[in-house]
Amino acid sequence: MKNFILTLLTALLVCTPLSTQAKNNEEKCVITLLDGNKISGKVVKTNNKKYGPNNVSNLYSVKVKEDNGNEREISADEANSLVITYDDGTEIEFMSLYAVKNFTLAKNMNKSGHRYFWLVIQKGKNLIGFASTSSITTVTGVGFMNSIRSNSLAYSYCKKGDEIAVTYYVPSVNATGGLTADIRRAFDRFPKMANYIESDDFKLKDFKKNPFGLLDTLDNLQ
After folding, report:
1. What percent of the chain has a predicted confidence (pLDDT) above 70?
2. Three-state DSSP class for residue 87
3. pTM of the entire predicted model
4. What Rg do the C-alpha atoms of the chain give, in angstroms?
5. What is the distance between the alpha carbons of residues 150 and 162, in angstroms, rounded to a whole number?
6. C-alpha to C-alpha distance for 176 and 208, rounded to whole angstroms
7. Residue 208 — pLDDT band, cuts 50, 70, 90?
8. d(CA 130, CA 149)
């Protein structure tokens, strides 16, 4: 199931806009606004925005043809959630959350200037996991020339009730150092989790196979 959803994510955020994927724009959607009211209709057009030094790309706004025939564009800043349903019954859910403010530590939970629609991949006991696309620089050695800019998935999470999603990464190329520290910084506000990532129990190869496994571990540690 996860492989299917990640393949769908790539299609949604990398290959083509949502509005060009289904026949005759038949994707139905329900948007829950900040005041609790719901807007339902069909997706006409979507707009992604990139954020931060790693160019994390998320859905930002959706143009909807409402059931009454009116067209309206709704941004993540106006909404709590978005559910899109394809004509084959497949549903994907997005939550509207802030990102961590640029150049601040995740543990301080300073929010970005805008909300984004984050694609929900996993729901645990206390945590929700998301996936996005990004373009990151990975250091492969010493010196300016020993770095690679590559497209990658970005993984994020929030505690239930939070309004900020915290992002961490798995580079698509081999890194020589610093990766464990980068991952730990995304979880520093949870001391037990930070200690686990620094311990011998944390295996980088297992993390690369299942980046959402960290959220299962954090759920168990709380």
Report:
1. 77
2. coil
3. 0.85
4. 18
5. 30
6. 14
7. confident
8. 22
Indicate the average pLDDT of the chain: 84
Whether the CB-CB separation of 136 and 150 falls below 8 Å is answered with yes
The residue among 56, 38, 58 whose CA lies nearest residue 48 is 58
- pLDDT value of position 17: 46
Q: Which two structure tokens, joined as six digits, stand for 189? A: 């506000």
Give the pLDDT confidence of 176-190 residue by residue, as tens digits. 456 788 899 999 999
Burial of 215 by CB count in 10 Å (0-12 exposed, 13-18 middle, 19+ buried)? buried
DSSP one-letter string for 33-85: ETTS-EEEEEEEEEEEEEETTTTEEEEEEEEEEETTS-EEEEEGGGEEEEEEE
| Phi, psi dihedrals of residue 143, rounded to the nearest 5° | 105, 155
Tell me the C-alpha distance between 28 and 82, whole Å: 11
Amino acid at 102: N
Cα–Cα dist 24/5, whole Å: 23
Give the residue extent of every domain in the chain: 2-221
Beta strands in the chain (DSSP E): 28-33, 38-51, 56-66, 71-75, 79-85, 91-100, 111-123, 127-139, 147-159, 164-169
CA distance 43 to 101: 30
